[in-house]
Amino acid sequence: MEKIKKIFLFGILIPIGLASCSGEIVTTPPPVAVVETVPAPPRPDYVWIPGYYTSRGGVYTWRNGYYKPAPRYRKVWVPSRYVKTSRGYAYRRGYWRR
Predict the structure, then answer these.
(1) Quick one: which H or E segment has residue 52?
(2) Cα–Cα separations (whole angstroms), residue 11 to 6, 15, 23, 82, 87
């Protein structure tokens, strides 16, 4: 039983926690954002989430934008971005704000 707990902890929980972190500091600024052509929404209640750059090992990769169902209560999407810090550029994940 103890072995199963360790497998669960190291095999599932830790990778999930690391994937949700935005702790990588990049020394070079991200490239200029790609100009996307926004297609018509699949439904009227969908919101366009703009594309953004992600960085892994200091290499930037563009992620295309997509539509997502709008949340209730009139929230606004704050896009993903890189924030300049004293150590470099830190990624901040997009989120819904009231």
Answers:
(1) strand 52-56
(2) 8, 7, 20, 30, 31
Q: Which of 77, 71, 81 is nearest to 49 (CA)?
A: 77
Say which amino acid occupies 39: P
pLDDT in tens, 27-64: 999 999 999 999 999 999 999 999 999 999 889 999 99
Q: How far apart are CA 13 and CA 23, in angstroms?
A: 17
Q: Can you tell me the distance from the alpha carbon of 51 to that of 30, in angstroms, rounded to the nearest whole number?
A: 13
Q: Is 82 exposed, middle or buried (0-12, 13-18, 19+ CB in 10 A)?
A: buried
